[in-house]
Amino acid sequence: MQILILPMLAHSFQNGQSWEVVDPSIVKIIVDKLLDPPEEVSAEYDEPLRIELLQLATLLLKYLQNDLVHHRKELIKFGWNHLKREDNSSKQWAFVNVCHFLEAYQAPEKIILQVFIALLRTCQPENKLLVKQALDILMPALPRRLPPGDTRMPIWIRYTKKILVEEGHSIPNMIHIFQLIVRHAELFYSCRAHFVPQMVNSLSRLGLPYNTTAENRRLAIELAGLVVAWERQRQSEMKVVQESESQNQIVDMLSPTVIGGDPKRSSDVPMFADDLSKRVKVEPGLQPLPVMSPGGASIPNIETPGSSGQPDEEYKPNAAMEEMIITFLIRVSLVIEPKEKESSSMYKQALDLLTQALEVWPNANVKFNYLEKLLGNLTPSQSKDPATALAQGLDVMNKVLEKQPRLFIRNNINHISQILEPCFNNKMLDAGKSLCSLLKMVFSAFPLEAATTPQDIKMLYQRVQDLIQKHLAAVTTPQITLEASNANSIISFALFVLNALAEVQKNFIDPFIVLLLRVLQRLARDMGSSAGNHARQGQRPEMDSAVSSRPTVDSTVICNMKTVLKLISERVMGSSEYRRNMGQILQTLLSERGTDSSVLLCILDMIKAWIEDDYRLVSSAGSVSSLNPKDIVTYLQKLSVVDRKSFSSSAQEEWDAKYLQLLYSLCGDSTKYPLASRQEYFHKVERQYMLGFRAKDPEMRKRFFRLYHDYVGKTLFARLQFIIQTQDWEAVSDVFWLKQGLDLILAILVENEPISLASNSARLTPLTIVGPVPDRIIMPQQVPDAHESLDGTSLSFDSLTTRHSQFLNEASKLVVADVMAPLKELAFADPNVAYHLWVLVFPIVWVTLQKDEQVALAKPIIALLSKDYHKRQQGCRPNVAQALLEGLHLSHPQPRMPSELIKYIGKTCNAWHTSIALLESHMLLMNEAKCSESLAELYRLLNEDDMRYGLWKRRSITAETRAGLSLVQHGYWQQAQTLFYQAMIKATQGTYNNTVPKAEMCLWEEQWLSCATQLGQWEVLADFGKGVENYEILLDCLWKAPDWTYMKEHVIPKAQVEETPKLRLIQAFFTLHDKGTNGVGEAENLVSKGVELALEQWWQLPEMSVQSRMPLLQQFQQLVEVKESSKILLDIANGNKPASGNSGASSNHQNSFADLKDILETWRLRTPNDWDNTTIWYDLLQWRNEMYNSVIDAFKDFGQTNPQLHHLGYRDKAWNVNKLAHITRKHGLPDVCVTILDKMYGHATMGKSRKHL
């Protein structure tokens, strides 16, 4: 029944499906068989079943009242019998059942009163919910079932009053009845005079003790709210009556009868006549409930004071009650601790009721003696926080002050003055908000300048000023040391009060301007120190210094700074001293990288207001409160260079909109500013930083472009001269600024000219053979719209040709402007489009210039390409240097440029092929040595050895050079080395009579060293490096010799060579060899730096170039193997640790060193190509040889215990030596092969099996 039947019935009844589940026959069976069975059957019912049956009967009464009329007798008997049972649970469910019955059908007053009285007296906690439910069902029916009759007051009201008087000494009984009154307040309104006095007297008892429950305190607050609501209702009714009387001009309507109200109020009189068929007689079996009516079968008539009279509709609480209610609401607001959700809700409710009470009783006497006592006695050691009490006290005072401003201020000025210093000492912003609201209302009611302001109010003014002065001086005096958080709290609170009072009286802050400037200086220092700490903490060796973010600054400092700026922005311009100090602080803030974006926006708003106000008051230009043009330019320049990289997108948009609008008005608004000032702002600000010319907003960019368009001449030479020579692009050198230059060039095109194909372009025969295109277009009747398919099916040939003809006709009407406008926007949005457009346009513009104009621009072009600021864009693709160089390469005639400059731009700005093409063209014309050397250097950097050797063969002087390079190209290293050595000997002996250029002799030395490297002559190279102190050669050869001792003592401490991936690689080799496992971390850091350097070099190389990237790919493999070497050392160190037990030592060694074995196996498979140079094989296998030595040393004692591990290093080292010797033999170097086999293995004998690996 509990799980299936009752839920099913409840769902069906609620959805209007009653008779689909039950019908009259089923109802009769339920009543006869379950609810009214024979006594011998019902006696067998257990208590859980009785409860379920009571719920079933209640469900039927609730939804099937009209259908149960014939079963009323059985239903009331069933419920009444359970009311007399001892089991508490079934009795409470019986109350619910009987109340549903009494709500549905008329019953004798005696039964109704017995049930009502019993429910009023039942207040045990375990019965609370069901009793509440029963009362809530019965109460709305009482006015209908128990009308007042001749007594003018319902009997159920009298019994409620009687029980409240009799049981009022018991807190549970009193709470039970008061909760009933609160829930059904409209039923007790007409008789409220009998309850209000006791309700008011019980407020303190229920709600004020600290140990009272939350439920009791909420009930007390609701009782106070109920009295206030009843009084508001009474006042509303009286107002309606008075308005009606005034309109009808009937004076005698104010008689007591009318005011007292009709005893047959709508809330007390039944709304409909009871059906006589629903009345039931008292059955013999329905005995009175002994616990409900001690008097037996009859209920005596109760006479209460005033009960025989008429209910007092005009009843209102007296002044004492009003004061008690308001005092209670004040005290309970101060007693509650709003920490949890429930207590916060009660606190808010009490404050709202206090406001309502003061609205209902505006002249009530409000006493704050308890507040004074609470604030005077609170100490931090007590349970209630003094700051919380302070905030609550201020909230209460504000609520009273809103309704009784002048009366409250006059009566409580001492309390207001008393609460000031505790507020400042606690520095809580919640208390600060309430205090500011309080002081604003005080100062609004009694302005300081008013003659009627009392002396007490003036003293309050002075007290507030003294406290602000005291606290601001404490944070700005150097002798007083405060923690940053404490100082920020003091500043925040003082600024909060100052800001609030300045809204009422602007000149209130004038005495504090000096202190506020000092506060601003302190805040600027705090923000700068936070930025410095962030910078020091953020510096990591492995991080790129170019990647940075704005430091995080305390939000309190930011908020305080913005508040100070807003406070003094209007008042600081009145004194030149203030202006100077303010200017210094602003320049510091604008220059600091740590300044928050919101602070910068606040500064921008302030400077904008200063400038606009100055020109708005142009008549007072000579006064000290105006900025001169020099100051304006200084501020604008500082604003232009503000670092905005860390701005959010919304802050960036806001900054651009405000600053650019200000700058444009200064540069272009002729109605406000004179021509000289506009030109000064344009040249010193906009032209220097070009913020408007490259604005993201198209409309703003067009406005600034018109300024440039009017300033620069309208000829191609003037525009090109402005771009190349006149304009300084350093401020915008981090972006592709040629798109702005393109705008200037394209702006002087004749834009109204029609677009036509060039004479040499491809053309097709017209589709329409008969007649010109326009003749075919004017025939729309051939292709009506209705014939065109909307579902994508094919159309007729005529319709297709006609539509194409229409398209051609429209295209023929296009002019230059129709193409240029979108092309400019596309070039602004995409640097690649701007790059290609510049490369296309510049040669056309260049060829149209006169020869003298080209000559005039030649040197400025070289000067522009030589600018150092191009480095800022060298990592960008495309960049300005690339575009300029390619444009010059495609121009005719080409301006002559220094070959060193072309080489530098080519290798630093990724203009390799353009630079090579330029140098090659210069070689054909002039064949200069410098040009040839620059070209050879670019070939070398791109690893184009054949091109480089061919160039040297062409310009070399001696036959030895040509022969030696040919031998090098074919791999005859030994013969080439001999030839180059002989050439160097001849040069030193004077054979060539100083006819050989120095560059060629340097080539001999370079190639001799290269041949020695290919031949593995590490000792020879080491001796050469020691002789000439070339640390780069020593670093490269000593670790291969190997001579680690000399490297550690003489090379590593002294070496100062260029940062390259190879240097980091050798340093990692040395670290792992010297420190072993202890150097793994350092080696990995070096490898990470080497990878970064290699990636930078990779990015600098041409996009489609494999040969140039081969050395980097080989270095990447070496860097990877260094990391794998670190894993090998760690694996060996971890595997050699002693096991927890000796028995598992053997199995531990058998299963460990998995990483080591995998890496060694991978190294065998990952080798260079057989045709790669021997230097690549040397670099890779020589280091592997060092690691094999480490493995051999680690497992040298495992010969008996683990032979497999013992032979692991020997086996792989033998394979490594044999592989390298094999490669050198294949490369035609048998002597090198023998040397490797002789020296590299390092052991006296090699096993037969290892020799044949």
UniProtKB/TrEMBL annotation:
It comes from the Eukaryota. One of its GO terms (biological process) is regulation of DNA-templated transcription. Residues 901-1253 form the FAT domain. Signal peptide: none annotated. InterPro entries: ARM-type_fold, DDR_Repair_Kinase, PIK-rel_kinase_FAT, PIK_FAT, Tra1_ring. One of its GO terms (cellular component) is nucleus. Residues 287-314, 530-549 are annotated as: Disordered. This is FAT domain-containing protein.
